[in-house]
Amino acid sequence: MRAARPLIGLALSGGTARSVAHVGVLRALAESDITVDRVAGTSGGAIAAVCLAAGMPVARMEELANDLTWRKLAAIKIGRLGFASSKRIELFLEKIFGAIQFDDLQIPCAVVATDLANGAPAVFNHGAVPRAVRASCSLPQIFLPVEIGGKYYVDGGISQYLPVQTARSLGADFVIAVNLGTRSRKIKPPRHILEMTMQFIQIMADNNTGPSLARADFVITPDLSGFGSFDFSVSEKVIAKGHAVTKQTIPALKEALAKHQTLRHRIKSRLLARYLPGRPAP
Question: Is the pLDDT of residue 186 over 70?
Fold first, then answer.
């Protein structure tokens, strides 16, 4: 009897404008017949995760990514806790998917935000998708916090930049992590509040990414160091980077999957032989 294929989970990190690289990764996985059974996303990765889980064709994702601008995702709204509203992210997704709920998605999906009260990861996999994604993308000091159920949430990258643990919690046996973190070790003084905020968030993301990487079965890391965090004008090039590096790693990924499947089969056979000795091994 052939061993059952492991459930493959995908963990998509944040990355602001660089998050469009996830689209290139998804295209390469699809071209290589790698089926994703579970998906989790943080911040910009949450948008890609939801598009995948909703069954959107990669070609359509590329169209949307290449047409993105900050005007479509943010609006100036001066408040005590920020100077922009992320409401347009919610409206952007509602325009595409309507009032979609997590239960409407084709594959199990979760997005990660940060609970502003305690700094802990807040995992959303039930309820309204657009608002949860908006919360996951709401960079503190820039965007106003997002209220859901009487609590306030901000960008998930502060608490779980690379949501491997969340993908695992959805039931994934084998988790592929896509890490877009590219902070230079030569930290330059920020020139304005946007750079200061991104530097602060990236430092926090670096501090929580280590445990996530340790729990991943395979990691894809596109080199996006030459691309800015807020520049959507180069989306086509960023997508191409994500696609190229993933295509290069496909042989190693398939080898890792095969080893994982063989190991699971051996463990299952030994357990059956130990506890059900009269039953033939699968």
Answer: no
